[in-house]
Amino acid sequence: MNHLPLIIKREYFTKVKNKSFVIMTFLSPLIMIALIAVVAYLSQLNNDKQRTISILDETGYLKDIFQNTDNTTYTNLSGLEFDKAIALVKDKKDYGLLYISAVDSLDLFSDNVKFYSEESPSLTIMTGLEQKIEKRLREMKLQKDGVTIAQIEASKTNIEIQQESFDGEKSSKIDNIVKLAFGGSAGYLLFMFIIIYGNMIMRSVIEEKTSRIIEVIISSVKPIQLMMGKIIGTSLAGITQFVIWVILGGILMIIVSTIFGIDLTQVKTPQQEMMNQAMQAEGAQAMAENLITAIGNLPLTNLIIAFIFFFIGGYLLYSSLYAAIGAAVDNETDTQQFMLPILMPLILAVYVGVFTVIEDPHGTVSTVFSFVPLTSPVVMLMRIPFGVPLWQQGLSLLLLIGTFIFAVWFAAKIYRVGILMYGKKPTYKELFKWLKY
Amino acid sequence: MNDLLVANSVSKNFGKFKALNQVSIAVPKGSIFGLLGPNGAGKTTLIRIINQITMPDEGSVHLDGQPLKAEHIRDIGYLPEERGLYKSMKVGEQCLYLAQLKGLTKTEARNRLKYWFDKLEIGDWWNKKIQELSKGQAQKIQFIVTVLHKPKLLIFDEPFSGFDPINANLIKDEILQLREEGATVIFSTHRMESVEELCDHIALIHKSNKVLDGKLNDIKRQYKTNTFEVGLESLNKDKVFAEIKDRFEVLPATFKNLNDDIKLNIKLSDQTSPNDLLSFLTSKAEVHHFVEVIPSASDIFIQTIKNN
């Protein structure tokens, strides 16, 4: 008798109709968006802050290098005495005073640059000032040796290595960045998904025990069907929630940004900052074009299909391990000792993905870990954008599914024996004994 | 084939512990079969083997002449002692689900449920969650779920625990009714008075071994000690008592009676018939009470366990 569809249906609908599940489904995106909005608002507030930096330059070398920007105004206090300048800056509540005392030699210059301020100044502002001064000094030193400004400008070169495979396929650095971004986010998504929804499956497996319905159920269905049904039903519920989150989050994002006029993309991370700088260097438009071609260069069909299969495969495998834990214990408090062995390979997979795949996508370590079933979903997903032969993908997937079925069988076995051992906290030794029953 | 269920020298070990040792039982069709035994004797293990929750290490179980197989799940209804339902699921949905797991179609299950809900007058529980019901109410639902698919074999493990006397009676009547309709019942309990009332066959399991089985009446006949309970009225109590004591083996007895009589248990030897005793007594005193002592199921239970 095949009860699988029936069990899946029940598991799915009990999860989905559960009040806390419904509340979390609709509340989580709200909270997320609210959080992002607050961060965006705060960083905008920070950006909008006006600063005045006063400059007292007794050497006169740095005259024109400080240009006012949207947020920063530079006041030149040349001619004032240092004491008066300090008093004035304090009085005006300026951000600080950049003081360069008179020097005889350019070599001694750096010892004489000082910044006075009420609070310790921000790192970005200091770095900005230092860069400007360094550039100016380098130019002056070169000029002293007889090099003209024009020559300095002309000496600047920008090298970009054009990459091409033996097959004549062109690629660039940005290609690699895009590949990493795709692989990384796929792997990371799977990781998050397992962490969030693994527990749900475990709890669902314990449910029969805590409600003491287990003997009634187990005298009607085979444990392996029950396990399979629980894993699939709960996974579907998880996917439903996730999809709702993505859709709802997207809609809310649009609503919030239009109503409050907060540009949520303005939340600047250091990477974005760097990207922005790179864009400026290369020209925004060229950059965008490169990005599009880079995405176009990706093996998109392969990527999407592989993503679906490996995502589902990996998720099911880990789910079945969580189910095995649920099968071994009577209540949730007993699950702790079994959690670590599950999380270890997952964390390992992410580490391998982040450190090794980036370094060498087809090296021994990456290849091996993209076959080992517990790490393969994450690692393979990160490798695929760099081009992995289909047979490798197929083999890895086959191993993954095989392990999944074995794990479900294993969980069912533990479950069946576990019924007979009510109220005993299992040890690994006992689990091993159970397998032989 | 008169036996619905036959277990043949079934043994089961858990590690070093022997839970069942060469236990054989035969449950006749249409009987109510009492599976008795002290706590931890192995009753539940045997029931789990019949339900295919665990497999026997040795021996075999046949249902209706065929070795047990997965399809037999439909033919068995099992009410475990350790019972429960999904707490957050609604009564109706839950019953439908469990009935479908037993192989009923949804419409079939719905119709039968309606019959039972009307019969037990609990129609308004359909949309309640189990956690809103009392323990006894949930037990009723559990009973319905157990019998809903009209199994050939019903197994009840302590079915009356948690019920008040009225509901216990109701359930008892339902069990008898199901037997009338052709079901065979295996009934595991510690309550000897319900064994007395319901069972026509019993098997007694003690320390993993079957120590006794057969028809309840046969067993009683086997266990009776030829003892008679006697109540006499006489003006000369002491004399009569002494005379009886001379001729028979006498034990004191207690039973309720209107008068302050001589109350005795008299054990007869194999040569003496009850009539001999009665004629002797009538010649000595006025007989108000004369009953053969039939061992109760409880007596048999305790005696057998003590002797083993």
Assembly type: heterodimer
How many distinct helices of chain B? 10
> What's the number of structural domains of chain A?
2
Q: What would you call the shape of chain A?
A: elongated
Family (chain B): Belongs to the ABC transporter superfamily.
Domain ABC transporter (chain B): 5-232
Pfam family, one (chain B): DrrA1-3_C
Keywords (chain B): ATP-binding, Nodulation, Nucleotide-binding, Transport
Give the arrangement of secondary structure elements.
The complex is a heterodimer of chains A (437) and B (308).
Chain A: H1 4-17, H2 19-48, E1 51-57, E2 72-76, H3 82-92, E3 96-100, E4 113-117, H4 123-144, H5 149-155, E5 163-164, E6 170-171, H6 173-210, H7 214-218, H8 223-260, H9 270-282, H10 284-297, H11 300-328, H12 336-359, H13 364-369, H14 376-383, H15 390-419, H16 428-436
Parallel strand pairs in A: 1-2, 1-3
Antiparallel strand pairs in A: 3-4, 5-6
Helix pairs in contact in A: 1-8, 2-8, 6-8, 6-10, 6-11, 6-12, 6-14, 8-11, 8-15, 9-10, 11-14, 11-15, 12-14
Chain B: E1 3-14, E2 17-28, E3 32-36, H1 43-50, E4 58-63, E5 66-67, E6 76-79, H2 91-101, H3 106-119, H4 135-147, E7 153-157, H5 165-180, E8 184-188, H6 192-198, E9 201-206, E10 209-215, H7 216-223, E11 227-233, H8 237-247, E12 249-252, E13 262-267, H9 274-284, E14 286-292, H10 297-307
Parallel strand pairs in B: 3-8, 3-9, 6-7, 7-8
Antiparallel strand pairs in B: 1-2, 1-4, 4-5, 9-10, 11-13, 11-14, 12-13
